[in-house]
Amino acid sequence: MRYRILGPLGLWRDDEEVDVMPAKWRMLLAVLLCEAGQVVSTDRLVEELWGAGPPQSVQKLLQGYVSRLRRALGDEAGELLVTHVHGYRAHGYRLVVAPGEVDAHRFVDLVRQAGRDLERSSPETAVERLTEALGLWGDVPFADVPPTPAVEAEATRLTATWTQARELLIEARLRLGRHEAVLDEVEALAAEHPLRESLRGQLMLALYRSGRQADALAAYRDLRRRLAEELGIEPGPPVQQLHQQILTADRSLLVEPAPPAGPVPQPPVATARVPRELPHSGTAFLGRASECSVLEEVLCRSGEQRTAIAAIDGTGGIGKSALALHIAHRLADRFPDGQFYVDLHGATAGLTPLEPGEVLGRFLSTLGVPHVSVPADTDEAAAAFRSLVADRRILIVLDNAAGVDQVRPLLPAGAGCAVLVTSREMLTTLEGATHLHLGVLFHDQATALLERALGTERVAAEPGAADAIIRMCGGLPLALRIVGARLAARPSWPLSSFVDRLTHTQNRLDEIRVGDVSVRASFDAGYHAVCQGDPAAALAFRLLGIVPGPTISLHAAAALLGGRAPDVEDALERLVDAHLLGSPAPARYQMHDLLRLFAREVCAEEPVAHRDQALERVLRFYLTTARLAVTHLEVPAHVARGTDRPQARGTAALGAPTTVRIEDRAQAEAWLEAERANLIAAVLHAFTRSDTTARLALRLTGLLQWYLYPRARARELWTLDEAAVRTARRLGDRAAEAWALHNLSAVYWLHRGFDGMRQCLEAALEIWRQIGHGSGERRSLYYLADALAELELYDESMTVQSTHLELAREAGDQVAVVAGLGNLGRVNSGLGRAQDALACFEEGFKAAEAMGDRTLQSFALHEIAHVHFGQGRSEEAYRQMRLAGELENDASRYVSWRDHAWSAYFPAILSLRIGPQAPGPPPV
User: Fold this and answer.
1) 91-138 per-position pLDDT tens digit
2) 166: which of 234, 589, 747, 848 lies 20 to 30 Å off by Cα?
3) What does the H/E/C string look like for 103-157?
4) What is the helix (H) or strand (E) element at residue 593, kind and residue range?
């Protein structure tokens, strides 16, 4: 038997190739080859082949695949693919392989032997072995096998050995004095691994021996700069010593070329003057199917009329480079004349973007132009590059571009070429480019990414925790990869434990890092680029971090920054261009959750007073605009649960005139609904800040009751009013505490939680009496009587309501009198005193009629109809209901009578009771 895994999976029996077509067969054979000679349990094979969601008949399927694989091996007796049993069931399988049957085993053995040859100072033998080893390498290991954890791990290990073999071959040839023969190869390999000091030393030595001392010294300087900027270290002693020897032109570095025993064998890893510069893209790329289709369609247009150009843009960590490399590798065969890759350092913290002339010099050198012949002038170098590639099919990947001016000189003109550019900003002025914007991953794509890192079984075991991780990472691929890598290195950790670590927002960015890779570093690069080019935009980014909420309007941002809307819009649009901010609609902006945390961190550069003043400005804007909006809402006076209804003329007293135009009810409701989530988030955040912002937030909470309560937004009211009670107590503001308790009682009413309502109102009533606040006392007495009535504590309710009516009449508060009569009537109804109840409702109706309040009149008529209905006087009840309906011309107006559970179907019951005598159903 012979097996090939260095490339597409292959199987030979008696020198005849055997076709292993179905994907599951290849996966099974690949996993067994990864563990050749070892028993692989059936449980592990199921996990490798089906992940966490195997079918119910998985054991039978596995046995069937094993039987078919045995037939392909010619092993009906089970001597090559051995079954290991436990009791009466198969426990696992072992693939028996002889030495030399697996190409990867031979490959690894040759590399190890070559390493020992070099240790024994036998470079000629090492060259022979390494040349043979590299000749076995066909492609990425298991190239046509669907990925499994075992296959991916083995492919990664073998790829690392392949790189080691190439480096050892270069070392052996350098010892033999064949520096010119290895120069192209060592340059390409050093470019793939720019921080590998041993490779850079080989490059320096090859350049020096080729008479290029200046280039050798430049290679050292580049290594030193990269190590300092990316790792904060200096090169190791061996490379430093070599640098010193080259600097002093040490002749001991020179060797006479050893005459080869025969033709010098060439490794099959690079063709001279044909660039193969694409870095390894890994095997973890998932999702982005539609984006891949777009890019393939665009780049495959090359060869038609002009160079195909695709430009990918998106925020840091969104996966632009990963997508570009994935596509470049998929399409590499379509560009047989080579593939260039260059990181332009457009958004790399601490590094200056590469100059186009420097990049062109590298391109030309790779294409065979002698270093001394490369034009110094950028335009001339660009022209020379275009001429060289005019008739070739070359793919160029320009990663991490700073802008159009950096990219434009690097573009070829030949129709057979294609260019793939990535940048944080959209390169809108790049002629002929197709633009693709990358957003965050969809939930299923993000889940698949976690499953790739952690295994489907581990993710499926804690779906809630996995969803929480995806949510707190905001669907950002880089964040998910980092979290996946950290959890993969900690297999005993439950996912929920990491959720706990991410929940603390002040530490979240600290947790999303592994080694020297972090989300923070990615964001920092984009932020510092903005700092250098637009300080006003950088300030806007910092201050936006202190304002919570899903979005922020241009008007609110202008208040936050204390600037004119046009100037602030320019700064915000600059952030949108840099993908540090999103714009879901005109004049509205949003920030990714992780970017907001980063913005909050860098906002620490601002003095605390400046931050508090900015938050105070935006709160005053919200307060002023909300106050104006509430004056246009049509809410009956007796519904008030918070502060007294504001008047439009009072908005100027806040010292922050609004820039929002609100002239009628429709505009008011539209603004309040659009800003609802932002207002609530701002209030809750302000409660935790300075006393000034907390007091502003308490006032804004009172205003929001007018919008939220009539729409029964109980959950939002509960969150606001509970926090308001705590904040008022912290501030020692007794009146604010009483109002907050009063508002909270209304939330209990919506939930029909009358015990909680009673407790809140009794606490508020005690405060009102202590501070001598008459209207507050009357208001709490009224609703306390209502709560007691709902609890069927009618005697207590009667006492409280009588006190309320007495105080209301003394104060001349007619609205309170009418409302109190309604309460008193309901108490009498509960006690079975129909006539007394009717008298209260009729007196209330007359008072409302005298006031001209149609809503209060309708309220009283509904109650009168209910009493008649309870007494069996259906026709009279029907008549009262019709009168009430005629008063309710505006169906959208809130009427508290409708709070009762039976109110919606009471008119229908009434119609059924009086039967066909009714001229029609009463209005609702």
Assistant:
1) 888 999 888 899 999 999 999 999 898 888 888 999 999 999 988 887
2) 234
3) HHHHHHHHHHHHHHHHHCCCHHHHHHHHHHHHHHCCCCCCCCCCCCHHHHHHHHH
4) helix 593-602
Note the pLDDT tens digit of each residue in 454-485.
Answer: 888 899 999 999 999 999 998 888 899 889 88
The partner residues of 395 in beta bridges, in order of sequence, read: 339, 418
Residue 843's alpha-carbon distances to 634, 825, 853, 880, in angstroms, are: 25, 10, 14, 15
Of 698, 316, 284, 616, residue with least CA distance to 451: 284
Rounded CA-CA distance 154/104 in Å is 10
- CA-to-CA distance for 379 and 288, rounded, in angstroms? 37
Question: How many whole angstroms separate alpha carbon 61 and alpha carbon 73?
Answer: 18
Bridge partners, residue 86, by sequence = 89
Cβ–Cβ < 8 Å for 279, 341: yes
Which residues 6+ apart lie within 8 Å of 180 measured at CB? 206, 210
Nearest to 426 by CA among 540, 299, 315: 315
Can you spell out the DSSP letters for 332-371? GGG-TT-EEEEE--TT-TT-PPPPHHHHHHHHHHHTT--G
Q: How far apart are CA 432 and CA 408, in angstroms?
A: 11
Predicted structure pTM score: 0.59
Q: Is residue 894 helix, strand or coil?
A: coil
Cα 145 to chain centroid, rounded: 31
Q: What angle do CA 136, 138, 144 make, to 5 degrees?
A: 130
Torsion of CA 705, 709, 710, 715, to 10 degrees: 140
Residue 332, judged by CB atoms within 10 A of its CB (0-12, 13-18, 19+), counts as middle
